[in-house]
């Protein structure tokens, strides 16, 4: 691992293992497999954003639930919603 990679890993606090990368790229044959509308990059971006949004929603609702106003407001999560995020990534 280069010095630059070590610095970047220290800043982000995590490292993606070679095994994970190998697993993701095992069916890679051509650039479109990575960059197409259903390619690996788009799939990873989509799933990461979904997880981040769900984690944020869980955090916000959990903290609201612990306050009097949160309980009385009836603000609770009854299921998953559907959101569309537009960006350069697709």
Q: How would you sum up this structure, described in words?
A:
The protein has five helices and no strands. It has 90 residues and is mainly alpha-helical. The protein is extended, with a radius of gyration of 19 Å. It has a domain at 38-68. The model has no long low-confidence stretch (mean pLDDT 75).
For the residues shown, what is the average pLDDT?
75
Order of helices and strands: HHHHH
First-to-last CA distance: 32 Å
Question: What class, by secondary structure content?
Answer: mainly alpha
Q: Count the strands?
A: 0
Topology of helices and strands:
Layout: H1 3-12, H2 18-25, H3 31-35, H4 40-65, H5 68-73
Task: Give a nutshell description of this structure.
The chain has five helices and no strands.
Task: List the keywords.
90 residues; mainly alpha
